[in-house]
Structures are given as C-alpha cells and as structure tokens.
Amino acid sequence: MVELSNSRWLLLSLILLILLPSPAFSKEFKIKSFSSKLVDDQFLMQAEIDYRFSDEAIEALVNGVPLTLEVHVQLRDRKAWIWQNDIIDLRLRYRIRYLALAGVYQVVDLQSDTRQNFHTQRSAFEALGDIRDLSVISADRLKKGRSYRLSLRSSLDIEALPLPLRPMAYVKSSWKLSSDWSELVIRP
After folding, report:
1. pLDDT digits (tens, 9 = 90+) for 23-76
2. Bridge partners for 36 per DSSP
3. I need a surface site. Which of 45, 89, 128, 153 has the fewest CB within 10 A?
4. How many Å apart are CA 58 and CA 175, to the nearest integer?
C-alpha cells in the first residue's frame, strides 16, 4: 500500500476541489420560453433565454473580456435514427462586452453584425436572450403529415475566451454555462 505524505494529500485535495462541480458557483442558462409559428409558409422561432452568468464570468465581462454565446438550433424528423442527418443544424452566435469608456454593454449578433448598446447589465442580458421571428425553415421543405422535433440549447463558448482564461474555464464549473435542451414538435 502506498502512503501519501501530508503535502501530497493537501495537493490531491486541492485538485479535487478545483475539478469537482460546486453548486455554490455554478449558474445555468434557462430557456424560459420556446415556440414556433407558421407565417407565410415559413416556420419562425421565438425563444427567451435567461442568462444567469457566474460571478467569475460577470467579473471578466466587467473587466473587458467579451463573452460569446452559442445558440444551437436543430430540426429533425421525430422518427429519424440517431445516425441520420439533421434537417437543420444552426449555430447562432452572439457576443456581449462591456465598453468601459462609454459605460455601456454591447450585444452583437455575429450573424448579421448588428449591435445594440444598453446602459444596464440586466437589460443587455434580456436583449441577449430574446430571439424573435427567426426563420428556421420553409414549410414546403417538410413532408405533410410528418412530425418534426425542433430543439434549442444555449452555451458559453469557452473557445472564444482569451487564451489565458481558457485553461481555467475548462477546469472550473463556474465557466461551464449552458442550458438544457428544450424541444417542441412542429407539423407542416
């Protein structure tokens, strides 16, 4: 049997504390609402995501580190096998950053490069999580009488963080921010 010295026990304990998830620090993103409607032969998606960032992520944001979020949207036939391709697989990317000189939070839609400025963190987070009338697919691309599963998930993109922050973000649970998958059924 191998005996560990006190210093090795201390080191092992510290490593385990860093690697184990801590409910006191971990925050989650919550999908508050998610729906789709058919308008002029197009399925449009609406979603409201409640972004609850950890204290560490907010501290980084306030200190000039931009945070990139990825909203993953998938559309699949409900009877599709796991190895079958998705009909739609979108990755929508948004960035939020704090502009200290102007005293505003800037939300950027990276698909269209549209920018919005907000004076409060709360209003910026609300705008970041508000997805309205996103065109998902034309109804004529779907087969009549079939059911399809539209899924949505949001997460913080750790790869978009500055290089010095990434190792810590991979290890600490306070940076592993994401929502659960939310799903709904659509029929053409």
Report:
1. 433 458 999 999 999 999 999 999 999 999 999 999 999 999 999 999 999 999
2. 45
3. 89
4. 10
Share of the chain above pLDDT 70, in %: 86
Q: Are 144 and 188 in contact (CB under 8 A)?
A: yes
Question: Hey, which bits of the chain come out as E strands?
Answer: 30-39, 42-50, 67-77, 88-99, 104-109, 114-118, 130-138, 148-156, 182-186
Report CA 40 to chain centroid distance, whole Å: 29
Type of residue at 133 = D
Total residue length of the chain = 188
Tell me the longest C-alpha to C-alpha distance in the chain: 72
pTM: 0.80
Residue 131 structure tokens: 């997805």
The residues of the chain scoring below 50 in pLDDT are: 1, 14, 16-26
Residue carrying structure tokens 């501290």: 59
**In whole angstroms, what separates CA 91 from the centre of its chain?**
10
Helix, strand, coil percentages in the chain from 3-state DSSP, rounded to 5: 25, 40, 35
Estimate to the nearest angstrom the gap between the alpha carbon of 37 and the chain centroid.
23
Residue given tokens 């400025």 in the structure block: 117
